[in-house]
Each structure stands twice: as structure tokens, then as C-alpha cells.
């Protein structure tokens, strides 16, 4: 049973990536875009809300143009601090700007099978298996739906997925794979069952929702309607921009930040207009498209810079941030995965992004790898340690101990050493063996990470869910399947 | 005189200047130049130059797309004159292109359309969120060689398979090749739904298309 969740808090490191004036300029550019270019809201309900609040609505093109003050006033209603609740209250996460939590990434389409090592299409059992391992790992604070349950009907797939998460873990569930009104309605019912009622759900939201925007400057109708339902129920909701330099954003990073920001804050303002005080978060995973293929890259210096800059924007609006990191484009766990996932995660951590998505993927969030999942957790642990910085006080300066050892001695026998040695980071998947041992065993961190995942999968038993709750969720899903 | 004009035409494509390409195409029509010659001796050479530079790694995707758009603009300008003369540009094949129903993701689909059309295909881009029945209707209407289906979501990807099923039911499956694309599309998926081709990116889609028509 895993109760402790590892999060970064009270960091000693910091980074200046944009000046306040630069943030202000991006904000003003964003307001200019929303007022003069507009954002597409292809939902009748969303357009009606905008119109009721005096925005200029072009119903044919479904484009909304909004005066800056309306956006700014609406955003002020968003709560700056709120919890993401877990089935086990000891695992609640406080989004307070002083914690960095990591989730599993999502939503992939293939899995490298834990036992056979073969790549195959993902199914519901994979969602359950990933959840069980994530439940055990202290680095994983909450779930996304890691892979798509492609053996379930498309119309209710998202419901089967969150049920599997709750049945296999006591941690918070955030779904990124529910993006229409009917599924959202059923998901909220399921969450209310877990929380013990609608009002309890509002106090302790055991579910949160992430919706993707449709860059540039657009949204998906189903996503908007799902988000509005969630906001009404008090379920934390975020809009994620994946604007990419070159294709869905300008080639320049500042321009792409502004485009994505316009998508996110316009939709967030919509939720606050409809349901003032609704818990919302900013979500982003901007990148630069590959110059040759136009493809999503999942890594590169632009990703690292976006990862650090976006938290300044969410701080500016005083709402939590969910930031994409770890999204390597590597096809197997290798040096590229190590570099991309370390740097993207470090940059997002050093500015204290509240949620990071997430561990476990290869090939730009398409292929789930258990080995990568465990190694991503190690990356987070390394950054977690790094963020603590260097403590300088009497105890850590250790003058008495230094005097006791004197020139030419060693510190191995000192009481002070024994007291503090466990502060030193001990990696699980880094090779610190002798050369000869490496040569004779012929294995590395990838093998160890996979073995560890298999061990957790074989041995960890998550705290079981009340069978009546399972039955209740099944009933809700069957109801949704019947329409 | 024509040689100089042809060079300018090629250059307009290389520069990705649609307006210049259109002006040159109009000028060619006014000067009585055979529009087919304008394409084969002028504009196409520009497309080839950019394509070669891209293959060498000297040009990037935006240059390819701009060249493709300029080419499309030039050909569109020349088409009425070709029709008047009773000639037609030889195309590699007719492609009906769409993002499937329930899915509004546009950019990958549009990119594929631009590159296919720049490579000599006649592309009928139906936009996004297009129902299977409308796609089938279009396939029939234009007697398409290829239907190309894009989807970004795992839940809308299933529509790619539905289109194939309907093509079978309607007795059209043997006369049209199906290619699919989108971030969640994998080789296993392509086999599962029985599509004929797929590509992981837009450049690859051109090769896939050419293979399907035996070009």
C-alpha cells in the first residue's frame, strides 16, 4: 500500500525566464487576439453564454470576439487554490502553487506488453495495469488515462477507463479522454458515487477533466460542453493548448505562446462566466513542429522553454498549471528519451508548475512503456532532489565533524555522516557498477526498470474499492450505453 | 520571350508567391501560350526544384507547402483556358480527402491535400467532420481513385473503418483505394480495418498515394 506521494515543495532553485513586462506584453497580445481575431467556439451553448455577456458572436462561423475587460473580470473569479481529492483522503493533492505533482501521461494507442515485450494495441486491462503500478509509485501523484481502452465502444470508452482507474488505485483521477456531453454527464455521476454525493464531490473532487483546444484559436464543441458540465458540478477543469510553432502557431515562440494563451484563457473565462468560482486550471503542451515533417516533436529546446514560460502565464492569471513534460519523441527508452524528459521536466519543475504530464510514454505520447514509466519516475526523483538545493546552516556546514576528521582522514566513521548519509540520492536505474560487472551482466537501467515494473505489478495490491461502488459505476455505464 | 516567362513561373513557385504565379498564368493566357506548356515547362520545374531541395535537406516544410499552394493557384488560373482548348492536365489520380465525422482536426489533413495536389493529384478536400455518406457520395461523383481519411482521436478513428465497410456494401471497394492517417493510426490499425495505405506524416502520404495508383 502506497500512501506517500512525492511532490516538489519549498524549492531552493528558481529561474527568470520572462520579465514581468514580457508577461504583460504576451497578455496584451492575447487580449488583442481575442478581441480582434476571435476564437472559435463550436457549441451552441457556449455561443449563447458569450452572447448573454455581451461578446460579439458570429453564429455562422462560430467565432467569438470578446472585450478585454470581460475576459479579465471573468478570470478573477477563478479560485487560486483548491484540492484534487483522492479516493484515499491521505492522497489528496493541494494545488496551491507550492507543489509539483506528476501524473501518468495519456492517452496512448499502443503498449509495450509488460511480459512479452511486444508492441500491441492498447485495451482496458492496460488501463488497469498501469493504474495499479502508478498506485504504488510515490512519484506518481495522480492519473491520466494512460492508454485508450480500444476494446470498449468509442461512445462509453472514457467511462470504462475512469472506472478501471478507481478500481485499481486510490489516487486522484484526471481524465483527458472524455470530451462530449453525454460521457461527461455519466462521469460526473460516477465521481459523485465515489465522493458520496454531489455536494461532497464539490468539496472533494475525486475527478478532474482536461480538454484539448483545437489550435490555432479554436475549440471542440464536445469538449466545451463537457467542460461546462464539469464546471457546473465543481469538478476542476482545464483547457490544454498544444499550439506548435510552424503549424498551429507562428514560427516564433512568443507568438505561439499568445495563440495558445488566447485559446486557454478565452475558454477558461467562459467557464467562469457560466459558473463563477468554478475550479479551473491552465494546461499546455506547446512545442515546435519538426521543420521537415511538420510532426509533433515531443522534445527540443522550444519545449523546455515553453515548459518554463507557461507557468508565468498561469501565475499571472492566478490559476494552477498542468504542464506537458516527459513527452519524448524517442521510439525506445534511450539517450533521446533521457535528455528530452529530463530537461522538459526540470524546466517545468523549476518554475513550480502544479501538475506535470506525465510519465511512461515513447513516440510522442503514443506508445506506453513500463520501463520508461519507471525511469521517468527516477528523472522526477532526481529533479526533486535537485530542487531542494543546498542547505547552508551550522548542521550542514559540519564544522565540528570537519575538525574531528582533520586533514587526511575520512568521514565514513562520523556520527554526522550516519545522520545525513540518507540525504544523498541513491538512483535505482543508473549504472554505477564496476566496468567488469557491467561487461559480464550486459544489462542496464532499462532492464532494471522493466523488472521493477513487473515486480510491482505482481505484488502490489491497491486498496480495494467497495464492490457496491463498482456495481454503481457499472450501472451508470450501462445506462450511458443505452443512451 | 517564353523561356524567360517560364523561368519566372518556376521562380514564383520556388518563392511560394501565389499572387505572382497567378499573374504569370494570366499573362500566359493573354499571350496565347499553351497552358499545358506553362505548367510543364514553367511552374512544374519550380515544384521540382523545391522538392529536390527538400529531399536534400536544404528546404523545409513551409517552403514545400508555399510552393504547393502557389502551384495550385497557377493551375486553377490556367484550368478554364485548358478546358476551352479541350486539353487537360494529366493527373496521377483523383483523391477524395476528409477528416472523419466527429473530428474537427484540420491541419494534417490540409497539409496532405496540399502536398498531394502539388505532386500531381487532383484533390477534393471535403474539410473536417465529414460523414461517411457524404464521403461515399463524393467518391461516386468524381469517380475517385483514392479516398484519404484523417482522424486525430482514438474515438473518431473508428469512423475510418466504417467508411471502408460502407464502401464494401455499396460495391465501391474494389474501385477505390483507401489511405488513412492521423496521430493514433498505426500499422496494426490499418490492417485491422483493411485500408490500403497509410503514412505517419504528410510527406509519406504522397509516396503512399503514388504507390496506390502505381505512379
Q: How does this model look, in words?
A:
The complex is a heterodimer of chains A (483) and B (215). The model of chain A has no long low-confidence stretch (mean pLDDT 97). In chain A, helix 1 packs across helix 9, helix 3 crosses helix 9 and helix 6 runs parallel beside helix 8. In chain A, 46% of the residues lie in helices and 13% in strands. With 483 residues, chain A is an alpha/beta fold. In chain A, strand 4 and strand 5 form a beta hairpin. Chain A has two domains: 323 residues, Trimethylamine methyltransferase-like (TIM Barrel, Alpha-Beta Barrel), CATH 3.20.20.480; 30 residues, no CATH class. The two termini of chain A are 38 Å apart. Chain A is globular. In chain A, strands 6-9-10-11-12-14-16-17 form an eight-stranded parallel beta barrel, surrounded by eight helices. Chain A has a four-stranded mixed β-sheet with strand order 8-7-19-18, covered by helices on one side. In chain A, strands 1-3-2 form a three-stranded antiparallel β-sheet. Chain B is 60% helix and 11% strand. Chain B folds into two domains: 84 residues, Methyltransferase, Methionine Synthase (B12-binding Domains), Chain A, domain 1; 120 residues, Cobalamin-binding domain (Rossmann fold), CATH 3.40.50. The longest helix of chain B is centred in the middle third of the chain and has 25 residues. Chain B has nine helices and five strands, in the order H-H-H-H-E-H-E-H-E-H-E-H-E-H. In chain B, strand 1, helix 5 and strand 2 form a beta-alpha-beta unit. In chain B, helix 1 packs antiparallel against helix 2. By secondary structure, chain B is an alpha/beta fold. The model of chain B has no long low-confidence stretch (mean pLDDT 94). At the A-B interface, loops of A face helix 5, helix 7 and helix 8 of B.
Amino acid at each position: 500500500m502506497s500512501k506517500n506521494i512525492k511532490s516538489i515543495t519549498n524549492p531552493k532553485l528558481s529561474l527568470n525566464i520572462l520579465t514581468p513586462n514580457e508577461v504583460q506584453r504576451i497578455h496584451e497580445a492575447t487580449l488583442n487576439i481575442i478581441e480582434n481575431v476571435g476564437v472559435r467556439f463550436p457549441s451552441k451553448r457556449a455561443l449563447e453564454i458569450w452572447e448573454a455577456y455581451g461578446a460579439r458572436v458570429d453564429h455562422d462561423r462560430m467565432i467569438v470576439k470578446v472585450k478585454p475587460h470581460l475576459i479579465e473580470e471573468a478570470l478573477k473569479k477563478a479560485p487560486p487554490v483548491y484540492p484534487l481529492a483522492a479516493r484515499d483522503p491521505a492522497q489528496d493533492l493541494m494545488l496551491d502553487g507550492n507543489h509539483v505533482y506528476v501524473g501518468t501521461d495519456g492517452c496512448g494507442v499502443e503498449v509495450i506488453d509488460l511480459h512479452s515485450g511486444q508492441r500491441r494495441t492498447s485495451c482496458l486491462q492496460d488501463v488497469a495495469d498501469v493504474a495499479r503500478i502508478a498506485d504504488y509509485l510515490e512519484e506518481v501523484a495522480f492519473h491520466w488515462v494512460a492508454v485508450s481502452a480500444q476494446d470498449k465502444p468509442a461512445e462509453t470508452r472514457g467511462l470504462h477507463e475512469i472506472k478501471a482507474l478507481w478500481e485499481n488505485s486510490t489516487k486522484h483521477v484526471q481524465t483527458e479522454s472524455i470530451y462530449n456531453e453525454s460521457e461527461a454527464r455519466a462521469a460526473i455521476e460516477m465521481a459523485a458515487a465515489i465522493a458520496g454525493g454531489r455536494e461532497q464531490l464539490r468539496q472533494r473532487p475525486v475527478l478532474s477533466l482536461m480538454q484539448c483546444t483545437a489550435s490555432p484559436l479554436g475549440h471542440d464543441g464536445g469538449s466545451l460542453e463537457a467542460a461546462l458540465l464539469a464546471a457546473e458540478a465543481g469538478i476542476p477543469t482545464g483547457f490544454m493548448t498544444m499550439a506548435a510553432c510552424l503549424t498551429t502557431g507562428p514560427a516564433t515562440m512568443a507568438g505561439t505562446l499568445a495563440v495558445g494563451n488566447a485559446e486557454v484563457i478565452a475558454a477558461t473565462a467562459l467557464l467562469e462566466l457560466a459558473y463563477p468560482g468554478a475550479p479551473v486550471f491552465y494546461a499546455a503542451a506547446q512545442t515546435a513542429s519538426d521543420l521537415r515533417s511538420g510532426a509533433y516533436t515531443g522534445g527540443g529546446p522550444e519545449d523546455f522553454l515553453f515548459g518554463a514560460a507557461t507557468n508565468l502565464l498561469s501565475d499571472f492569471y492566478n490559476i494552477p498549471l498542468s504542464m506537458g513534460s516527459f513527452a519524448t519523441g524517442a521510439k525506445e527508452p534511450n539517450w533521446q528519451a533521457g535528455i528530452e524528459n529530463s530537461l522538459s521536466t526540470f524546466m517545468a519543475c523549476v518554475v513550480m508548475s502544479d501538475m506535470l504530464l506525465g510519465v511512461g510514454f515513447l513516440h510522442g505520447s503514443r506508445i506506453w512503456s513500463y520501463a520508461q514509466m519507471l525511469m521517468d519516475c527516477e528523472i522526477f526523483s532526481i529533479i526533486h532532489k535537485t530542487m531542494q538545493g543546498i542547505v547552508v546552516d551550522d548542521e550542514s556546514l559540519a564544522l565540528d565533524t570537519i575538525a574531528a576528521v582533520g586533514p587526511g582522514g575520512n568521514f565514513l566513521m562520523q556520527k554526522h555522516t550516519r545522520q545525513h548519509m540518507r540525504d544523498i540520492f541513491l538512483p535505482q536505474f543508473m549504472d554505477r557498477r564496476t566496468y567488469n560487472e557491467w561487461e559480464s551482466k550486459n544489462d542496464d537501467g532499462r532492464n532494471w526498470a522493466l523488472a521493477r515494473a513487473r515486480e510491482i505489478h505482481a505484488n502490489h495490491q491497491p486498496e480495494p474499492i467497495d464492490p457496491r461502488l463498482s456495481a454503481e459505476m457499472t450501472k451508470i455505464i450501462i445506462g450511458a450505453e443505452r443512451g | 520571350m517564353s523561356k524567360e516567362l517560364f523561368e519566372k513561373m518556376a521562380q514564383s513557385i520556388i518563392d511560394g508567391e501565389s499572387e505572382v504565379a497567378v499573374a504569370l498564368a494570366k499573362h500566359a493566357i493573354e499571350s496565347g501560350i499553351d497552358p499545358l506548356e506553362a505548367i510543364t515547362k514553367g511552374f512544374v520545374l519550380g515544384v521540382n526544384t523545391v522538392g529536390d531541395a527538400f529531399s536534400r535537406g536544404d528546404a523545409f516544410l513551409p517552403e514545400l507547402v508555399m510552393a504547393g499552394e502557389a502551384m495550385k493557384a497557377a493551375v486553377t488560373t490556367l484550368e478554364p483556358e485548358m478546358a476551352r482548348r479541350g486539353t487537360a492536365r494529366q493527373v496521377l489520380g483523383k483523391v477524395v480527402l476528409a477528416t472523419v465525422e466527429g473530428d474537427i482536426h484540420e491541419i494534417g489533413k490540409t497539409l496532405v491535400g496540399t502536398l498531394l495536389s502539388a505532386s500531381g493529384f487532383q484533390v477534393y478536400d471535403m474539410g473536417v467532420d465529414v460523414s461517411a455518406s457524404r464521403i461515399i457520395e463524393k467518391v461516386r461523383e468524381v469517380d475517385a481513385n483514392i479516398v484519404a481519411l484523417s482522424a486525430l482521436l482514438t474515438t473518431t478513428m473508428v469512423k475510418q473503418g466504417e467508411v471502408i465497410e460502407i464502401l464494401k456494401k455499396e460495391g465501391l471497394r474494389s474501385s477505390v483505394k483507401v489511405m488513412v492517417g492521423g496521430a493514433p493510426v498505426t500499422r496494426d490499425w490499418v490492417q485491422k480495418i483493411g485500408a490500403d495505405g497509410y503514412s505517419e506524416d504528410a510527406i509519406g502520404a504522397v509516396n503512399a498515394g503514388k504507390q496506390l495508383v502505381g505512379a
